[in-house]
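Appendix B. Raw example, untouched.
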Amino acid sequence: MSPSARAPLGALLALLALPSYVLGAEPAKDSVEPAKVEAPADAATKLLGIWAGEPVFGPEIQGELTVFREGDTWRARIAGYEAPGRLEKNALTVTMPGGLGTFRGVVGIDGKLIRGHWVQPRVVVGGVQYATPVELRALQKGVWRGQVTPWADRFTLYLVVYARPDGTIAAYLRDPEKGFGKQFAFNVSMQGNAVKLVDPRGPTMFEGTFDPRFGRLTVPILFLGPINFTKKERDQAVGLYPRTPASGPYAYRQPVAEQDGWATASLSDVGMDPAPIHALVQRILDTEPGPSAGPLIQGVLIARKGKLVVEEYFHGFDKERLHDLRSASKTLAPVLVGTAMEQGAKLSPETPVYSLFPSYKSAAPADPRKAQLTLEHLMTMTSGLDCDENNDESPGNENALQDQEGDWYTYTLDLPMGRAPGEPQAVYCSAGMNLVGGMVRNATGTWLPEHFARTVAEPLQFRRYAMNLMPDGEAYLGGGLYARPRDALKLGQLYLAGGVWNGRRVVSKRWVERSITRHSVMSPDRTYGYAWWRHELRVGERVYAEYEAGGNGGQYVMVIPELELTVMFTGGNYGQFNLWKTFREELLPRYILAAVRR
């Protein structure tokens, strides 16, 4: 497949979820079955070391966007392209030639600002479109200018080649962004300049070439196409190791206050013992990459008493690099319900789902149980629809949904019923949470990225984000928002403060209280509110109530009300629940809760 081919997100997610015998498993120990090499093992020793591939697929258009108005005519220029604009009421739309990007914005009443989003074409790594915020400021009458910074369609992939004790050569893939590389472990052989990477437990084999003149290893890898790898030293492998170069013993520093709404303080200022936090961060720094699976923590942020007191990033991430929140961003769907209600939308938990899709026509005889389905059922994963993320045969499984090129709302509404709505046992269903977005869109008459920007991102002082879209251009609320961790943590602080951020009310206190209340049961020790997971955590003789937004790989926004504490982890352990659940079950109580002294 060519490197420019677009892979649908559903196909990519399915690929990453394939069993080990298809893709090549991560070895349980630091060993893989010895290769049946076609050449002496010492030929492949030329490849020993760290190889990095960093393909960039786009976007083609980014940079300074200038919008002009002459009478009733609107035009826009960016990156050498120019296109006409269309104004309807106060909504401006500009689409670049060849579908290379679209600007959708709202012209302010005073004409000084045009706030909106840049919608980029489908990306290679993930196969979806993203909407990123853009603010255009008036330079003079009829001229506005701002910066377009789309989601970077790039990928960093490390191929680490090493020798086993028996002298055979092995390799593993790692990447800091998507968890793609964790699926692969190889035996390595080389004959002449031809290289083979063979999965010892499955049919996967990659064949590439080594060019000794330029020190380049080229390997075609699935939908990514040919990846050109070059050698890196330890101190150059950003993302592979916790810190690059190695940082030595950890020294705590108070986070820096910025113009993003967070006040900062030291650990001691808020009554926390620095020693357990020091031990936690040092444990992360001491983690070495290897062929065996291990915790991959990319960020830890802690706020207490409304102040940010810990902000540490690892594996190539920093405070400005957007992180994929995965299903932790499902929690935004009920938040958007709350903000819509706050602004007067005719919406409530009791609203019948199908009543807000009046143009929907059922593809089959309607199941009478669908008339009972309400917004609350969707938010608590008790819809009764045949939609189960833990069942690959379920028609509502997220992979099946994301393989659809048509209207995902219609696809979800068409799903058969598997049970009656409202049963206390929840069934995890991304399609149902995404349908919440459709109800908000229809109740407000507003494009979801615009509603999110106006009612959440702006009042919470989000700096940057990238909102993933469905094929029809509407936002997908089943997960996958990219955000700065400092901004994502504000969601926990907002709910801890009863719906207020820095003195500004975003959602009602009543909505917060209703959202974090137990509504359904996921498992004996895990209950569910409105897209908030609920747990009890034990520290010594104390038991603390905790609620969280949680996502695949280790994306957590955690709230412990009794301790006035909000915590965020970001991670890269995608598809490895046994690893990322330890962030909450072990690291949070052992190091963070134990640090609270007063």
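End of appendix B.
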